[in-house]
Design goal:
By secondary structure, the chain is of the alpha/beta class. Helices cover 34% and strands 20% of the residues. The strands form five sheets. Strands 6-5-2-14-15-16 form a six-stranded parallel β-sheet, with helices on both faces. A five-stranded parallel β-sheet has the order 8-7-9-10-13, with helices on both faces. Strands 1-17 form a two-stranded antiparallel ribbon. Helix 1 packs parallel to helix 9 and helix 5 crosses helix 6. The radius of gyration is 19 Å and the shape is globular. The two termini are 30 Å apart.
Length: 276
């Protein structure tokens, strides 16, 4: 893996504040516990004039829960600075559609905000939206698989196989999506990182980012490449230094978010918040 310090944050022809996109789980926190140095790194960028946004594939919490939990972890965030895979999935649903959900309250919230009509999987839904769920019921899963098999649109918030925690990876939304994929015999349309629906949602809110910081090359790294941004890989989540070379290759690798920000401050001559 490459080391922190390779290259500089830049976008040809762009002037003004740098836009940083942060993954949450494995970058800013683990299971709601701040990773040491991450809150200070975000505050340092804000103080330097950078724009920041948080883009997560974790579809379970609501926006208000994210704001509250981030505040408790020492990261002040405006709801408008958060983009979730639940919101990306909801962007694929036509208002008024009958939609069944296998997932947490964050998915329900995003679909209600979109104007979808939430129904049970056994009530003839036009679409089934699947995200990470901490409460699984076989009858619900069987009904969802049946609805998909009979023609309901199959939308996945994301396909991350695992979810980072302080005790190691746990099954992510991708494990549940795979279950329903096998059970229904159909492929899902995926909304979250690194797919186009999430990219379109980010661009519609913030414009083109300059740097994406994440812990998972196949999602965060591929997302950065889709957006034409640099990718900073941190080793506080699912990726370890001894792992095989990541694909796509990151522009820099650092032990944590604080090290990424410190490196970019140094590269930019003391400030990483503006481009001239």
């Amino acid at each position: 893996m490459g080391e922190a310090g390779e290259g500089q944050v830049s976008r040809i022809g762009k002037t003004g504040p740098v836009l940083w996109l942060f993954d949450l789980d494995g970058v800013v926190w683990l299971a709601g516990r701040a990773i040491p140095g991450s809150p200070e790194a975000v505050a340092r960028l804000r103080g330097d004039g950078a724009r920041v946004a948080f883009v997560t594939n974790n579809s379970t919490p609501t926006v208000a829960e994210y704001v509250e939990r981030l505040g408790r972890a020492g990261v002040e965030v405006d709801p408008g600075e958060l983009v979730t895979s639940s919101q990306a999935a909801a962007s694929l649903i036509e208002p008024g559609s009958r939609v069944a959900v296998v997932g947490g309250e964050g998915v329900h919230e995003a679909l209600r905000d979109r104007g979808a009509q939430l129904v049970g999987a056994h009530e003839g839904p036009e679409a089934v939206v699947v995200g990470r769920s901490l409460h699984l019921d076989f009858e619900e899963l069987a009904a969802a698989a049946r609805a998909i098999r009979e023609g309901a649109r199959f939308v996945a918030t994301n396909t991350d196989a695992t979810f980072p925690t302080p005790n190691g990876p746990e099954p992510g939304a991708g494990a549940l999506v795979a279950y329903l994929q096998v059970g229904s015999g159909r492929e899902p349309q995926v909304a979250g990182k690194p797919e186009q629906p999430m990219a379109e949602l980010v661009r519609s809110r913030f414009g083109d980012p300059d740097i994406v910081v994440g812990d998972r090359p196949e999602t965060d790294g591929a997302f950065a490449r889709r957006l034409g941004a640099r990718f900073a890989l941190v080793l506080t989540g699912v990726t370890r230094r001894e792992d095989p070379p990541p694909d796509p290759a990151p522009d820099l690798v650092a032990d944590n978010l604080a090290a990424v920000v410190a490196d970019q401050m140094k590269e930019a001559g003391g400030g990483a918040g503006r481009l001239g």
